[in-house]
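re: that complex we talked abt at group meeting.

here r the seqs, copy pasted straight from the sheet so there may be weird spacing, ignore it
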Amino acid sequence: MLRGYSVPRSPEGRSSLVPAPPWHYVGDFLVLEYWADPGAVAAVLPPGLEPSPDPGRCAALFVDWQSCSDSGAELDDPIRSQYREFFVVVNALLDGEAVTTCPYIWVDRDFALARGWMQGFPKKLGSIQMTRHFPQAGKAAPALASGGRFAGTLAAGDRRLAFGAVTLERESDQGPTHNDPPLVNVRHFPRLEAGRHDEPAVHELVRARSRDRTISPIWEGKAELELYPAPNEELAALAPVRLGRGFRFTFGYTVDDLETVRDYTSVEAKAAVQP
Amino acid sequence: MLRGYSVPRSPEGRSSLVPAPPWHYVGDFLVLEYWADPGAVAAVLPPGLEPSPDPGRCAALFVDWQSCSDSGAELDDPIRSQYREFFVVVNALLDGEAVTTCPYIWVDRDFALARGWMQGFPKKLGSIQMTRHFPQAGKAAPALASGGRFAGTLAAGDRRLAFGAVTLERESDQGPTHNDPPLVNVRHFPRLEAGRHDEPAVHELVRARSRDRTISPIWEGKAELELYPAPNEELAALAPVRLGRGFRFTFGYTVDDLETVRDYTSVEAKAAVQP
Amino acid sequence: MLRGYSVPRSPEGRSSLVPAPPWHYVGDFLVLEYWADPGAVAAVLPPGLEPSPDPGRCAALFVDWQSCSDSGAELDDPIRSQYREFFVVVNALLDGEAVTTCPYIWVDRDFALARGWMQGFPKKLGSIQMTRHFPQAGKAAPALASGGRFAGTLAAGDRRLAFGAVTLERESDQGPTHNDPPLVNVRHFPRLEAGRHDEPAVHELVRARSRDRTISPIWEGKAELELYPAPNEELAALAPVRLGRGFRFTFGYTVDDLETVRDYTSVEAKAAVQP
Amino acid sequence: MLRGYSVPRSPEGRSSLVPAPPWHYVGDFLVLEYWADPGAVAAVLPPGLEPSPDPGRCAALFVDWQSCSDSGAELDDPIRSQYREFFVVVNALLDGEAVTTCPYIWVDRDFALARGWMQGFPKKLGSIQMTRHFPQAGKAAPALASGGRFAGTLAAGDRRLAFGAVTLERESDQGPTHNDPPLVNVRHFPRLEAGRHDEPAVHELVRARSRDRTISPIWEGKAELELYPAPNEELAALAPVRLGRGFRFTFGYTVDDLETVRDYTSVEAKAAVQP
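got the structure back, here u go
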């Protein structure tokens, strides 16, 4: 019998690219709050979401993650435990409730890519780099203090796609708000049968669930963000028209659940038989 | 409206990690025919497949691929076009018909990983290296001629997992046979909803379809193959107990279809309510 | 006793990053002939070289290499044998003789970087991608025939730095000429002793030597070339102001010698004591 | 005029792979003290060094570095600032003084490789992974506390070469001692002129100098270390025969000097003319 949460499923279940949930995470975050062109934000909303009353509200996030399954075995073989990530969330309404959704996201490891797809994150591989904090601040390491500067970069397909930075000013009372509303994403897995390429096997709006959330003190300051075009990317359509604040902190949580909010496949099936 | 065959789906449809089929491929193949422990082969068969009457019959394949969609745009940006791959196929019977199935496979690009999942190939990322042929044979390049030696290596997770080689003897009359029967794979996409981790959203046996197949002359010779263990891999259970012949050739085809042979999800649903 | 041609030198001499010469090479070449701003070309000439009478004459080359030492062991472990490369050569005069020199070059493997430094190639690491030719031409592979299109890209530091392409028209009578004159480069290895950072330990003009050169038929056609800026690169100063022809072919040779043309260190020593 | 501390030297001096010193560093260290076979340690000593009175004394170090030049520009583009490193130091005597020397070392970035060569570190590229510490300890991140476990792995050439780990017990009074003596290394840059491959252009014993050293509190505990063989490596000859203690801490310093202790080239020149 083949075992395992994900492919490749195998006799002992040790081969799965993504081990079974729960998945435990901790990461250093760089959050850059901003507003994009409202029309560009509206254009990336999945069916059922309406534009936010604060039009164009977005956040860009760089995260340096460490994660593991319950066994913790990945921590002893860190190439299976660590990854870096860049993503954008846009703000919207779902049935009148404020939500966020992630149109674009990149990570630098296969297990994180696949685990993201399972959660509705539309991940590609990229190269994400982030200024690190060390307890010995100095010329080679910014302090978590006023004037400390933390940057992040994203490249994919051998092209630079994003640069962000925050220059710290003070500990934050409130923390970031643009990425605060509940996250809804689209799980999508295509069909390859001829004639049915437009009928994905999985196509559903899902709502993220997590538990055991912990967070460090949050620093905030002046934000910078640039998004660059590429032939096979549409990220730059969400470039900032106005910048908010930037934030840096450490956050951890555990994921082993997901709520399906809407199944798009029945809608598609119906649409498919209509003129 | 969001467009695109795969995530990320976007307003213009340019962002998809995997562009819409058809997908055109050409690749240099190194095929190593062998027999593994019959019990180990039986243990990787998906439900509905029976052991081959030639017990333990397998092939290991290294492939250096170039691929593109109908636009061919990827050929002008080769990082989106090329990848290398290692996989094993095992032989089996499906309703009495000889078939092959792929239990383990690695590629070195994200688009190839995702495109594989859509076809039922249980891909992970790895580093695949293959001796190249050049028209100017010499000390730095083996000839497609008797004595020419072509090797391949696989690593994943920073561990060497496979080595294979063929030392050419002659043009082959028949070509490889261990990978000849129709290929059936398992498409699998998990569910994350709590309590339903064992009920994948997609779980089906599929049969590969392709067209416009072309093949170069085939060279054959003595085969070598070694598979090495790793904590999170079960590939080495399929290590050779007997070696057959090795083959080298170039092969191209087009894929835009797939046949679902059996939907496992209904079976699972039934099994789930039974003791 | 420590053995080996390069560091790390070790008891058995098996550890050297660069094995002892001779080094045997074969590679697929994409050569794009062009002219850059003559002032920009003059600015990259090492001491002793004068501008070419054909001002601004340059060539950009993408190469997909396979190489090995006399043992050929690297061909059985191709990660130690293969690399891709992008470089520019500019034309100049040395004591009245037409020569070329390489101001900028990138490769994708450590052994090739170090071997290049030993030959006076100022290599950095980059990601070089090139459209491949396969014997089975088709939608996924251009033919070596009129209309066949071969592209190359360079990225380094997560930024795209170059794009080049040739659209083939016919077999070439003459082949490329912009990279034809003898190649002279600068071997340079710094000193770290305080107060002497400006006195490199090795600083000499060298002239490449090679033997056992072989070349395939050469195809030529229309050339395209774009060079892009980056904060830590000056490649874009050599961007084309006029394009020549493009060429594609396979070339092999062996290297185990180098001629020192001029030792700059004595000049520097003298200059250092002068006002 | 060409400017820059290292190749490629360029009109504006912005292209150099290694910017001019001083170089500022900070890094998280995992130090594993051990003893190797004394004969194997003696075999890697450069000329002029004698075995330590504590035969076979070694340390293996994993380091997660961030570094920059005086401008600090690299911190805003972290791909030019960060790298990971694995190396071994062995203990020896130089003119009766306890010293250490580094026979083997791997890093994951080109600038670090080249900067290492300039300091006498015989660097190759590798993949180095290390368990990270985060301020939010939990299932995904070990605490800097008794029971916290930090691991490191090294791979190069697609082969796993080392595993190390420390399970913390307490803050350390003394800190590590096996890597404490002054570090002497060999700067070596080969010659390629035919007939003189055995006469390196640079071959000298150098003594590291640094300043502005800072260090965090040090944790210590039980050490684990395994070194694995590879065809083109001799690291495994230095595998542990006895383990000491393990340590974890953060350390920063600045480098802009180096002392030449012995010039081997004059010795070689003499030896070359003798029978």
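couple things i noticed - The two ends of chain C are 45 Å apart (CA to CA). The CA atoms of residues 3 and 9 of chain C lie 5 Å apart.
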